[in-house]
Amino acid sequence: MPLCGESEGMSATMRAAVCVRAGGPEVLELRELPVPAVRDGWSLVRVHGAGLNRSELRTRQGHSPSVRFPRVLGIECVGVVAASTDPAVPEGTTVAAVMGEMGRAYDGGYAEYALLPNATLMPVATTLPWDVLAALPETYLTAQGALDALGIERGARLLIRGGTSSVGMAAAAIAAGSGVETAVTTRQASKVDALTADHVVVDAGESLGGSLREIWPDGPEYVLDLVGARTAVGSLRLVRRGGTVCVAGSLSGWLIQDFEPIAMIPSGTRLTAFHSETMKGRADVLQRIVSEVEGGVYRPNVDRVFELDEIVAAHRYMEDDQATGKLVVTLRHE
Fold first, then answer.
1. What residue stretches are annotated with the Enoyl reductase (ER) domain (predicted)?
2. pTM attached to this predicted model
3. d(CA 292, CA 281)
């Protein structure tokens, strides 16, 4: 259990899952590395859990040109401050960290210790177990930020594309708590029963528009598109004229091929985007989310928990789209 003031004993080395080169899951190797040395403006976190994200999968595959290998991946983690250079976040503080080029420009959360910029650390008070806490930061902060970017009002209709993703499930929970009528999509009929929303639609491609019109003849006022590049143009056709589409995921990649804004965005309809980097350091938002999970208002939506030495299996599971919800890696400290 994450308790503030936890005693920290550090060894000279640590276990880490290192991405040695671009490739399949097998390029993630468990290695012994030196524990990073603390420097000004950075603090050392003893990592107890890390959520897995598809952006890490694409980095591992070689689709992040700025990343140089070998690299410890992981754009988020939760743990306890082991050595601090920030008086506001002393040793023993339970923290979460997300983004800030974590796991890309510098080593991230797939390790027993992570040296992180103080600006990324978010103190949190909680009684949640580590695997549950690790499922929340990137997922729920992204969901909340994306809904804020859409500017949804109570009583509105929201379509979430990519409803079985961890962010999709979190967005549906937040929207429901805000009085928003929600429909979510999934490409796999076998996952329908795992989803909680006002409406669940199996996305079979061209038939999606017809299925959606049976629910909302005029269409939704808002679409949160977590599939991304492959579906963004289609989402602009699904949303009610004058509505808003927010692309906040990249399950299908980064780039929309042959995108022609004047031809593809209906007049008066708005297209926006959200990147979770903007929620970096938002400890106030994360604390509220954690409290809602503790109170049973939101669900953590953990699909499966792996240990660090199972990281290859975890990435294979993620790459095969087997998850309905969040995947988490936990770290055992002797």
1. 23-329
2. 0.89
3. 19
